[in-house]
Amino acid sequence: MIARYYQLLKEFVQIQSISTNDEYIPEIKKTSKWLKKIFEENKMDVKIIDWYWNPIIIAEYIHDDKLPTVTIYWNYDIVSAYKKDWRKEDPFSLYIWKENIYWRGVADNKWQILIHMLAIFELIKEKNIWYNIRFLIEWEKITWSKDTKRFIIENKENLKSDFILLSDWNLVNQHWWIWVSTRWDIELQLTIKTSDNNINLWYFWWIVPNAIHELSKLTSKLYWANTQINIPYFYYQVQTPVFDTILRNKKIEFNKEEIQKHLWIKEIFKEKTFDYISQIWLRPTIQITSIHSGSQNQLENITIQNIATANINFKTVIRQNSDNIIKSFQQRTLANLPKYVEHYIYINRKSEPVQINKDNKYFSKAEWFLQEIFHNEPIQLNLGVNIPILDTIISNITDNIIIIPLSNYDSNTNCSNENIEIKLVEKWFLFTLNFLSKQLQLF
Known about the structure:
Layout: H1 2-14, H2 25-41, E1 45-49, E2 56-61, E3 69-75, E4 95-97, E5 100-102, H3 106-125, E6 132-138, H4 146-154, H5 156-159, E7 163-167, E8 177-181, E9 184-193, E10 199-200, H6 201-204, H7 211-220, H8 243-251, H9 256-263, H10 276-282, E11 285-292, E12 303-304, E13 307-316, H11 322-336, E14 342-351, H12 361-374, E15 379-382, H13 390-396, E16 401-404, E17 419-421, H14 422-436
Parallel strand pairs: 3-6, 3-7, 7-16, 8-15
Antiparallel strand pairs: 1-2, 2-6, 4-5, 5-17, 9-13, 9-14, 10-12, 11-13
């Protein structure tokens, strides 16, 4: 099974299913057809739903109406990659270096798909599977899963399940954990305008407003010196971690030098009263992800820009009110801009926080198997991000959700040199085989 896994993985990663660039739509379609072929070869009923624009794959093995049904959700879309950013070889050609496998899509999300596919194929072959199986695989998670959400809402009766199994994100300091909540996720675009047109640099550069300068001054005022956010009432209703949570986080705490080594960075920021894990998973933040103005045209280099734009990402926590935060941000922006500057705020997307229902037998069963296979107690963790489609799944398919990470904590998801540790492959095969098998039903 392991040999077959690596053979299929090599084929899978060579297909450049990049969802953020329309030039790769043929590769997206190629990926869906490749997955359909593998499912059909292993006696599963497969459909490619392509009338929602996004090719959605539904693969089913329904063998006993009396047994519970699990829907396994994943995405196969990836982001672009360039050879110059990678240490070795081609990012779309699987290669091994030291104890890790490198390629684009390793952590998000191709290797997870194949692990569960091959484990389930083996259980079907041995007639040792306890559940009815449904795969729901899509390609637009990175672009917010809009069409897949619509598909789920319009076909919810046919997708009803007893629980959802989903693997996403990375281990925390190589410690096994299971999701119990996610955050609000707000992405907005702030654009400022200082004049109706660009102005010649050589004649007027010392007397006219510059949009890039004004935007830089504005964004620098978002933070206090202690890294806290400088927006009124931003921390209103944010809970201080309880003592038990702090003790739990101490079990998996990083040290500063270790983070710097693995991320190749020179400094780490956190509030003085919090450990690194609590800062990452329990504290809200605002991050500027890009600032841009002008173009690559050489003529633009001799002009003072009249328009500049910043993309800003808010990660808030349970109990915070996203609408109030956006309103406070708008008021703070207006208060800090000179009268000669116009501004526009556009909300790109906003997702709700999700509280996972822990009071179900499938959640308890997953925790038990994680502990048995990895020989330590899995940590229940509040995740610092959100999965776009999660609230739609809860509303329309089931609220029994199991989300566990498969990738090593330094897998560098969606960035250069994305990788997995080879030793994790066998462990996660073992988890899937045990969790879904007929012989090991403890609940």
